[in-house]
Amino acid sequence: MHVAIIGTGIVGTCTAAWLQxxxxxxxxFDPLEPGEACSFGNAGSLSPSACLPVGMPGMAKRVPNWLxxxxxxxxxxxxxxxxxxxxxxxxxxxxxREEVTRIATALRSLLVPIFDCYGPLLQDAQATDxxxxxxxxxxxxxxxxxxxxxxxxxxxxxxxxxxxxVEQDELEELEPDxxxxxxxxxxxxxxxxxxxxxxxxxxxxxxxxxxxxxxxxKRVAGFERQGRRITGVRTEEGACLxxxxxxxxxxxxxxxxxxxxxxxxxxxxxxxxxxxxRSSNLRLRHTVMAVENNLMVNPMAMGLRLAGTVEFxxxxxxxRYERAQALLRLGRQLFPHLDTSETTQWMGHRPCLxxxxxxxxxxxxxxxxxxxxxxxxxxxxxxxSTGREVAHLVAGRPTQVDLTPFRPDRF
Length: 411
Description:
The protein is of the alpha/beta class. 32% of the residues lie in helices and 26% in strands.
């Protein structure tokens, strides 16, 4: 088959790589270079443990205070509020313990095979050096503080996540540069990370191209069809490329295309910010999650990346880089000796749905169109497993993961 892949982020690129392993011809549609949108600014975590949704029990009580703080962990631009508030209400409806357990169970099913699914793709692309399996440390100011997040951590354990408590002495031995600020931790030894998310996507994309893929730097406007089959992809310029199938993996821009295929989903952009400290003098061996501060810290090839905020403001509003500077201030508080003389900052659009589950499945009104988007801040974690499952769908094979929780028509 000749399959069009709309999007060259981690999900679209992994999907293309898996399709090529089945012998399909691939054409990418994306006006951007691969790995230059949301995938570029990813925090880099590859975490089988990252199965908890954004909406957690008790969040409803905290949201009002968050919304009043323009630099807080979750904020809404007031101009966008009328559009996003109904979406936030839906998210909070999914934050009960019963719903969180259901969602976490589904997310875990896509996260368990992270390294099994990345492995063959990285080997094909000769890019295994971009992924490491060094584990993740969830760190706290005290064991008593950690108890506030015990329900979620215990849920992870009940779903098979390996986690063990780390007392202060061992924590300081594992990460000497954390000394003084954190006195208790939980180690997830199965976790890993990438040293460069953009380079990883580019390496996979380059291998796809070497295997015969084509990348048309065009924005897709719509589709040509005969009955329930897509016969062509139409660009904004009016050109039409004949295809045998299409995968929509355009991240936060996927909603209108999915709607044309009969699948209307409540897709939002969870705008994320990061600061990368290029001059970092910290020598971290693990990815570190400062849970009380909602701050992910990951040592990368280009420096120390700090990420961890959510802003709802739509696709068109300009970045508010004060949020990135707030991350940097927090980093200085947690690591007073951190050299921050050279930094870069970024904002990107994470595609998210109110139940924190991505959309993975066939489009409602097309037999040869599949949807793969809405992974939120976990696209890097679930990109390869999503790609493998979409390849199964295209081939008509049984999937290795139960995709029922991710079906496009669940809304």
